[in-house]
Amino acid sequence: MTDIARHEPGSFSWAELSTSDPAHAKGFYGELFGWTANDRPIPGDGVYTMLQLGGRSAAAMYSQRAEEKSAGVPPHWNCYVSVESADETAKKVEANGGKLVAPPFDVLDVGRMAVFADPGGAMLSIWQPKLHIGAEVVDEPGSLCWVELATRDVDAARAFYTAVFPWTAKPSPEYTELYVGKRAVGGMMQIRPEWGPVPPNWMPYFAAEDVDGLAQRAKRLGGGVRMPPSDIQQVGRFAVLHDGQGATFALYARAHHG
């Protein structure tokens, strides 16, 4: 099932791009994923662009805010977790050592949200849906299929997030999978020294049929490859890319068994 009418609380429901060049980003992701851009005015002379796949909301973008630029925050993807109550979840964030960057606030009549930093510094948003549920399509090519935390302390992150969200963690030496009930919704892994000065972060994965082809296309469109297409045994193939402004995201193609 890929068309979504509701996101289970604790599921990743949305990804949005904060970009320094919306015009370039629209062209890049439109060519890469087949997204169409639907600009919507927001209060304060801003524009929030819904990125649609076959007429269904898949993601969004906005022009990076002045305060982000002045703070030296590079263009990046924001990831959202669907929750029953933004206020109750925000209380859990603070009670477990996280920091509210934007305390709960209403977004017109479409939802209520908050932004926080976990104890390791990774930023994540929460979304209490009203008129806008989040992504209307997931798990098909060009739509969100996984979200992953890179952190310097997996054990501390696991303790924090399982206290804040209805997640159970399934750790292995290399990777920790995060579940809502019996469904895996995301993962976390340790930042490795060879990655260089990577800050702790949550990164969206978008489903792809041809990871290698899209990685090449991203380079032709002015983006680049941070981690070349690679296989995860029995799981699938992935690559980590960046767009023309440097925002990082990943591709994933599930392994076909049988």
Rounded Rg? 17 Å
CATH fold category name of the largest domain: 2,3-Dihydroxybiphenyl 1,2-Dioxygenase, domain 1
What is the CATH superfamily classification of the largest domain?
2,3-Dihydroxybiphenyl 1,2-Dioxygenase, domain 1
For the largest beta-sheet, the strand count, sense and barrel status come to: 8 strands, mixed
Tally of individual domains: 2
What topology, given as strand order, has the largest sheet?
2-3-4-1-5-8-7-6
Look at the structure and give the mean pLDDT.
94
**What is the count of DSSP helices, taking H or I runs of 4+ residues?**
5
What coarse outline follows from CA principal-axis ratios?
A: globular
CATH architecture assignment name of the largest domain: Roll
Task: Describe the 3D structure.
- The protein has helices at residues 22-33, 66-70, 86-95, 154-164, 211-220, and strands at residues 12-19, 36-42, 46-53, 56-63, 76-82, 99-107, 111-117, 123-129, 144-151, 168-171, 176-180, 183-190, 201-207, 224-232, 236-242, 248-254.
- With 258 residues, the chain is α+β, with helices and mostly antiparallel strands.
- It folds into two domains: 12-129, 2,3-Dihydroxybiphenyl 1,2-Dioxygenase, domain 1 (Roll); 144-254, 2,3-Dihydroxybiphenyl 1,2-Dioxygenase, domain 1 (Roll).
- Strands 2-3-4-1-5-8-7-6 form an eight-stranded mixed sheet, with helices on one face.
- A hairpin with a 3-residue loop joins strand 2 (36-42) and strand 3.
- The protein starts with 11 loop residues before the first strand and ends with a strand.
